[in-house]
Specification:
Strand order of the largest sheet: 9-10-5-11-4-1-3-2-16-17-18-15-12-14-13
Number of domains: 2
Structural class: alpha/beta
Distance between the termini: 51 Å
Number of helices: 15
CATH architecture of the largest domain: 3-Layer(aba) Sandwich
CATH superfamily of the largest domain: Putative sugar-binding, N-terminal domain
Strand content: 15-25%
CATH topology of the largest domain: Rossmann fold
Largest sheet: 15 strands, mixed
CATH class of the largest domain: Alpha Beta
Helix content: 25-40%
Shape: globular
Low-confidence stretches: none
Mean pLDDT: 91
Number of strands: 18
Length: about 475
């Protein structure tokens, strides 16, 4: 059944004009953070959450020293990866709680306060309630009180995922549609029906969070009232009230971030469940032009050819893989998922040999079979982990070929390759290949064979049909 709400074009046309003071808002955010020693700690359920930021660091292990080093960067911002979208709810909560404790302790060592952000999917997939509850427990145990409110801000501006009048929209086929009508809402693990975010929270909580108990910050509040109006709306909230936040432009998010900091100056306390874009706003980061040329170049001791590894199974990814294969640029190697699950033959060792040999003469595309259908629930999580482990083992062995660069397609895939194949403990997010989309990591603490290699983190649910082809084209130009 299709959503009966008005078309996006009519809805967006009815909105007040966007604010024109974004630069001043960013400056105010940075000034307030500096004055109050406020760091931003992002608990990220896969590595793709950093695609809206630049010159910040990601940490892949819950290690206080690594997080303190990351906080020491100029942005005062640290992403701590949990990969919790790849596991069941209880394990996800445990990983999140561990990460929250680590970030809080690292900030405490630096004499600072930390904003804790639970960053997840802009198409609403993930352990929403369990992960926020885990962070709230840590907050209660460390500062003696739970947060006054939880801001729910799933917008990802660059990818066309926006919220207006409490309804979350996603760009599909070049048009904005309610997110509940997209393929992401039919996810076998995190599926849902509602596009209205209040209804979504009630649905996901099985009624524990009631729609009438959720408040909202709308675009009229944000655009006409600005940060002071946001502060006023937040001032009276208590007991971890959920707040749905509208956002269509970055200036909307920056006005909200500024209002949050103003409210915190008056003693209020908040947590955040967000998509990628609000992190940039809360950090007060300026936009950065896409990376090109020398900014992408691998170190001169690396080989000539690169590796593309595709684990994501969303249809968007499959279309992108199909387009890349038509170009004739790559040796294409399929990893047979049923054979991995049945342990038929030495599939991983054989694939590793093929990839390593092929990298000596060509760029290589390694992709999981597209026709395999996993089950639901914990069995599906197990399949995903087994396949991701196989990919990581193959790539780890293929590092002996010293690839010039690696593209990892899919959030869980990119996490497991970074940790298990590249030995990456900490990396710098250099920036993105397109405005706010597709991050490039520069390993700062990783296996020797991974140092000096651009590592491209490409979400499974991002990009038009030719996007993977365009990414590979940009990287191939580096050796021209």
């Amino acid at each position: 059944m299709r959503d009966s709400r008005p078309a996006a074009s009519a809805l967006l046309a009815s909105l007040p004009p966007a604010r024109e003071d974004a630069g001043a808002l960013r400056e105010s955010i940075r000034a307030m953070r500096a004055a109050d020693d406020v760091l931003v700690g992002i608990i990220d359920d896969d590595p793709t959450g950093s695609q809206a930021v630049h010159d910040v660091q990601v940490v892949t292990v819950p290690d206080e020293d690594a997080c303190a080093a990351a906080f020491g960067g100029p942005a005062g911002t640290c992403f701590l990866l949990t990969n919790s979208r790849s596991v069941g709810e209880q394990t996800a909560a445990e990983l999140t709680e561990e990460a929250a404790r680590c970030l809080t302790a690292a900030a405490g060592r630096l004499g600072a306060r930390v904003e804790l952000v639970s960053r997840s999917d802009s198409t609403l997939r993930g352990h929403v309630l369990a992960e926020v509850a885990a962070i709230s427990r840590v907050r209660r145990q460390t500062v003696g009180a739970e947060p006054d409110a939880v801001l729910f801000v799933p917008a990802f501006i660059e990818a066309g995922r926006v919220t207006a009048n409490g309804v979350h929209w996603a760009c599909a086929g070049g048009e904005l549609v309610p997110v509940g009508e997209t393929e992401f809402a039919r996810d076998r693990l995190f599926g849902y029906a509602a596009s209205d975010l209040k209804e979504f929270l009630a649905e996901k909580s099985r009624g524990a969070v009631r729609r009438e108990d959720i408040t909202s910050i709308g675009l009229t509040h944000i655009r006409q009232g600005g940060p002071d109006r946001v502060r006023g709306l937040l001032a009276g909230l208590r007991h971890r009230t959920w707040v749905v936040v509208d956002a269509v432009e970055y200036s909307d998010l920056e006005a909200v971030a500024c209002g949050v900091l103003l409210a915190e100056e008056r003693g209020r306390s908040f947590l955040f469940r967000t998509g990628p874009s609000f992190v940039r706003a809360l950090a007060g980061l300026e936009p950065k032009a896409p990376l090109r040329g020398a900014e992408l170049a691998p170190s001169p001791d690396r080989s000539e050819h690169g590796l593309i590894v595709v684990g994501s199974h969303v249809r968007q990814t499959s279309r992108q893989v199909a387009d890349l294969m038509t170009r004739g640029w790559t040796v294409d190697l399929e990893l047979d998922v049923p054979a991995i699950m049945s342990a038929t033959g030495d599939v991983v060792a054989s694939a590793a040999r093929e990839v390593t040999e092929a990298l000596g003469r060509s760029d290589v595309l390694l992709y999981t079979s597209r026709t395999f259908t996993a089950g639901t629930g914990n069995d599906s999580f197990a399949v995903g982990r087994a396949v991701s482990a196989a990919l990581a083992s193959i790539v780890g062995q293929a590092l002996t070929a010293i690839p010039a660069w690696i593209v990892a397609k899919g959030g869980i895939t990119s996490h497991d390759l970074a940790v298990d194949a590249l030995g990456m403990r900490r990396a710098v997010v250099a920036g993105q290949l397109f405005p706010g989309l597709i991050s490039v990591f520069r390993p700062a603490d990783a296996a020797p064979a991974a140092m000096g290699m651009p590592y491209v983190v490409f979400p499974g649910n991002v990009g038009y049909d030719q996007a993977l082809t365009q990414v590979v084209a940009l990287l191939r130009e580096l050796k021209a």
